[in-house]
Amino acid sequence: MDPGAYAVASMTLPTRSPRSALYKSHPELVLNLGSCLAVLAIVAIVGYLLARERDSVEQSEMRSSSNIVQLIESDILRNVELYDQSLKGLIWAVQHPELLNVPTKLRQQILFNQAFSAPVRGDILWLDAKGDVLGDSTSAVPRQANFADTVAFQAHRDRPGLGLLISPPFKARLGNLDWCISFSRRISGANGEFQGLAAGALRLSYFNELFQRLDIGVDSSINLLNTDGQLLARQPTRPQDPLIGTSFSERPNFKRILSERSGSFTARSTAYEGQRLYTFARVADLPLIVLVAHSADEVFQSWRRTAIVVSVATGVLCIGILWLTLLLGRELRRRHDAELGLATLAATDSLTGLANRRRLDQVLRQEWARAQRNRKPLAVLMVDVDHFKAFNQRHGHAGGDHVLREVATTIELCIRRPADLAARYGGEEFQVVLPETELAGARLLAERIRASVEAMPPFGDDERSVTVSVGIGLHIPGTHQDLAALLGDADEALYRAKANGRNRVEGPEE
Q: Is position 416 within any domain?
């Protein structure tokens, strides 16, 4: 007998996993996975809707700011056109000397548009080639001042084709005009020589008054800048805000505004903390830029409140779903454990703890089908307790039950492969199913069972221990037609073992 045959069979036979237990655990796994996917879907949908709503709020604010920018741009263009017309009218009158010989009051009406040059906007001056005031829209007797040192005067004097020039912000020299910007045109003689300047001052407070009519929020602002980055007007104004004339030319946001001419973008402010939504436009071809800056916190304040409420409600809903899933999963586990316990009881012999006859029949059919399909051997051991009826008469049913349990435990300890099955066949008979086992391996295991049972201590006052007889039935591919024949061979081998003196192992006849 090859003592390693059964060990080799043990190594070659694949381990059988508890498929039924794994299958029955799937409902809980599917439940947990489904709940997690549902929660993720809810969070994703709510997140998408909140993000889309935020984009909608941002786009709406951009459209509103763009409308404000267009309104201011239109007003500025209208004022610039009015100033330019007045300047052109003054130059035309100056270039016709015969119109200047009329009475003073009429001359004032000819030179200046009194309806336009109102104090709310500013004044218009006629300067000679030396920079002295020859005509003043505010008085028939011109105020005395010299503007030869100004940037606008020098630019027109040195550059004949300059056209309409808008100056940087300055403090007015005449009157109480505070901060102003000027619109000026060159007065040329018949031969193109420089004869002076027609200049109009526009109070920057005019824009402040215009901006004040527009309600854009506490932490937002409307700004007017020139293309050099100087601040011309701003509303609302606070102590910490930049002053008129402050330069923004080196700041990244202004550089972007200057390069794009018009549009909207969101960026961090270098003057204030937090993000700001900028909407801007260049005023036609003029060196002026209208800028509306909204605080992102102010723009999204209402959306943020809604997002918090929706997020909290969604969080509570998701937590509720997960909590209910946990409760249901716990109930499924309890049900699974109960079903597993019932299945174990249904497949277990109550006396010995081995598989019962029902489980034995199922395994035999499965292993027979597998042996036929894979063309592998299948061995069956039929184990019977010797002289059990006499033992039962001597020690009673309690003693007999005790011996059967001990024999069952011994048989189970001799089995080493997970795929092997030991079962109670009936009465004092046991059966062991050995898939993919040759005769040598089956005989080795049968002899081990016989010797182990014989080595058990005697029961009670008996001088000898209990013994068993073992018969081996072996299926070799192509030798048996059905399972009944295999079991019949094992049964016949058992009868031979008993007939030959018991406490022995008999295999199939050669």
A: yes
